[in-house]
Amino acid sequence: MLKTLHGALVTLRLAVAMDIPVLAGIRAKPEVYERWRGGADLAASVADDLDDPDVHPLVIEHRGQVVGMIQWGAETDPDYRHANIDIYVDPDVHGQGLGTDAIRTLARHLFVDHGHHRIVIDPAADNAAAIRCYSKVGFRPVGLMRSYERDPDGSWHDGLLMDLLADELIDTAPPTRPERTTHRDDQAQLQT
């Protein structure tokens, strides 16, 4: 059973059926739908994601609210073993570092708790915001995958394969507040 994962800004927990309506609502937003389609019935698409035995979907929470989903899978052949990640975040909270924190938190979990040495992610080659987000965690471009994914209009677009090795994770610890010790001089200043 997956433990709840805590990042500096987000909490990741196992996605459950009760999350389907809010996740479908996020997927319906144009900025997300453009990258994460799923047909006319987005609730059914999200339910399929939750039921896929090869995928581990996690809800991204920020301040107690569901703001997206991140999922991972794995290649289990010992000669090619690695994990993969995919993510979407509500556009209402873009630009706050939540996606970066979610990716970093899950990557740390995959390296430490699952023993993976490599993680891949494959944004659309023209998705500059996603590529910047992944780069902040340490992902590096590996190559361009030409005509990688079909668009709703039937045309094809390129994907960018990026990977991250365990020793390349740019891991920032959650901010901590140092314990304050009060000295006599400090007390004297506080009393004046």
Task: Give a structural overview.
This protein has 192 residues and is of the alpha+beta class. Helices cover 29% and strands 30% of the residues. It is built from six helices and eight strands; from the N terminus they run ββαααβββαβαββα. α1 packs across α3 and α4 (98-112) packs across α5 (128-137). The longest helix is centred in the middle third of the chain and has 15 residues, at 98-112. The relative contact order is 0.13.
| N-to-C span | 56 Å
Give the assembly state of these chains.
single chain
**How many β-strand runs?**
8
Low-confidence stretches: 174-192
What would you report as the Rg, rounded to the nearest angstrom? Answer: 20 Å
Q: What spatial form do the alpha-carbon principal axes imply?
A: globular
Task: Give the strand order of the largest sheet, numbering strands 1, 2, ... along the chain.
Answer: 1-2-3-4-5-6-8-7
* Percentage of residues in helical conformation: 25-40%
**Structural class designation:** alpha+beta
What's the short story on this structure?
The chain is of the alpha+beta class and 192 residues long. The chain has six helices and eight strands; from the N terminus they run ββαααβββαβαββα. Helix 4 (98-112) links the parallel strand 5 and strand 6.
